Amino acid sequence: MVDEVMGYVGAGLSVHLVGPRASGRSELCSLVAERLEDDGLIVLRLSGHRAWQNEPFAALTAAGIGGAPTSAPRRSIGEMTAALSKQVSSGTVLVIDDADALDTHSVGALRNLHRQRRLLAVTSSRHRHPVAENTLMLGISPAVQVRSPALEVAEVHEVCRSILGSPIEAGSLARIAMSTGGLIGLVRAIATVGPRAGVLEQLDGLWRLPRRTGWAPELATAVEPLVAGLDQAGWDGATALAVTGPVPLDEAEKMLDRSVLDALFANGLARHSQDGPGTGVVGLYPPLVGDYLIAEGSAFGLVIARNHLDGDQRLLDHHTRRPRGADAALLHQRSLRQMADEVARARRAWTEMPSSETALPLLVALRNTAAPREQIEEVERRTPLTDSQESAWMLAWFATWKAVELGDLTAAKTVLDEGLGRLPTFAATLAATKAHLEFQTAYVPELPTLEPDPRDTVGPEVLGIVAAERLLAAGQVEQARNLLESQHPAHAHTIGLHAFLVGLADVLGGDLDRAIEFAREQLEAANQSANAVLIQNHAYLSVLGLSIAGRLNEASQAAFQSLSSSSVAAYRDVAHTGILTLGAEIAMAQGRPEYARSLASQIGGAQVAFGPWPGMVASIMAPNDGRMPSLRELCELVGQRLDAGYVTGGIFLAVEAVERGVNQNKHITRAAELATATESPLLQGLGAYAGTTAAGDIDGLREAIVTLADAGALVFVTRAAISLAILQREAGDLAGAAETLDTAWERSEISGNRSGLFRRAATHVGLSARESEVLRLLPEGPTTANLAADLEMSTRTVETHLHNISRKTGVSGREDLARVATTWLRPAPIGDYSPGSRHFTSGS
Prior knowledge:
The protein is mainly alpha-helical.
């Protein structure tokens, strides 16, 4: 942000920095002023204070401008303008914090001086709508408006980790990001006060939010400045919105007077999210304000909310685009309230009449809100079984929960086996569920052979799902597609699982664009139906497809959205493990090791260590007993996956192994051989990549890269090109390797920030610390003498370092060295983790 502001100022433009309280505006103003002074410019700092707004020239007087003479209590406007003119010499930059709170006399003097000679200013203010006519921001031009940023989740993690000293559990991190709206002041407050107030608790090295909200009375002083200035009507209205949560705009207008809503909007406390069709929703921003008002708000506001909630409150309309920033925070808060309401409704229905029909909605709602295990076991214990499809499906639900959530496949099989004796009519549902759970958590099972009873409508659909899973696990994509096209499931859950497999077949078949778009459509549908299992499945598929296609920024955002959703729909399954694993790998590829470590630290807590699809092996990114798996252990994992029948997952894992340094090995060779027999161009390319890299076959690797490019797998094209460059270097062709890396960098532009992806190449170059320091400064264009002075070295030593850098990289000439220093040889962020000669770097 400072760089952006400085760029505008350097071009002669004033900058109006706008944002809510707690967004870091004042800190940014201070940082800009310090940077300007470091650059040798004269800076005049002013600030507005609402307590001084009725005091003429208060801001200028506080800055030491035009002190009042003894003969009169105050100076005239002309005298103050003259005094200001003397203070503001040519080249002076004004930095004015809280410019919206300046007294009108100071605004007049500044605008008057600007008419005489153009001022250059950096101002900060809150959003004010409608815009006031006498604001300084309308009086100084030419100018640009820059909005203070809402922190992304990775930045929230950096802020929290710097304060707490250790990572935060991913779901809790997402909840902090959402509840604070990404406002840095509130993030810092939670991280600072949270451990002492019981908001944050440390467990197994991770900080977590143990309660549903991140609120504690100790946080009031951080939140109260945001609501300061509201009159009683505004206070009542804000409290009502806090209790109801975000509501559609037409409902907000029925609940509150238009003048009250306008006041909340004008103060920046209410936001209108226009995501999707209809009128959108209105809610408090940031949501932490709502938590504060629920505890501290007005009694009358509670009455307004209660009267509103007595009526039928329709749910939030389906959203057709993915929300971000304030919209995401608003919709997240809305979802929390809806899920809590759903639990209450479902519990009332089940309590009045315990049955499988009433139990299933309650079980889904309990899982969506991460209810304690005891509550689910109570439903299992007290719900009678009948010879019905609903009872069979309820047993399937309990078995899935035990196998996936609790990691107890044996207990799950017991539930299903006992059900076979009690519900023989629906044996197909129970047997197919058993095979599906074995596939999800342990191995590829044989397909059950039984003739379904005509009354069992779900069983045949699940059997079809298992049959397609088996084919995709073996890489037989065309056979799986043909089978899926012949299936027409009618049950909502099997429709979702069928759609997941259709999308996965497109990924493995090389139709990545179609797979990504399809996964997004299915994820929207799953979100609308609040089906936690399908939300995770389609989110995983979206992250997988985007990452393979090399669209790392989009993949990272998709992973975050899924993880923030999983803090609401807190369903932990193998897809969740896959999202965390892929998210950590993407973060590493983007050069964000701290965020990668935060995600990886959660994977180890998975109850099921392995899943059937790529990325669903917890130990790949999660250190085991403080260490990453050794090369031998990685090879054994590849063999274990292949032995269990997971050919697709085993081939992806073989690529990981060779990138981390595995050479020729029987398991890698077997994976490569199995890949050639698949019907997937992606798997064929990956198998060839793994096999040729392990064997050091440069020509074979070039052919594998072509195969991967034809499959649209840009991220693996880039990774394989990096491996090719390493093989070229090992063969002594340093110039050829540098050319390969240059091309790989240029062609991977779609990936955005991918400095971490190229760390394997930089590590192989092996620059010393001093050489890296010299290289880091080269893009700034200093002479050798200036480099020597900056680094406190002799000119001869700098020249020696430059010669060594050229020798190690195969790149000659200062200009070319400066170029690679900003591309594939860019210095890695501090804190890269996990050892490995080809993929990871040492350092922690």
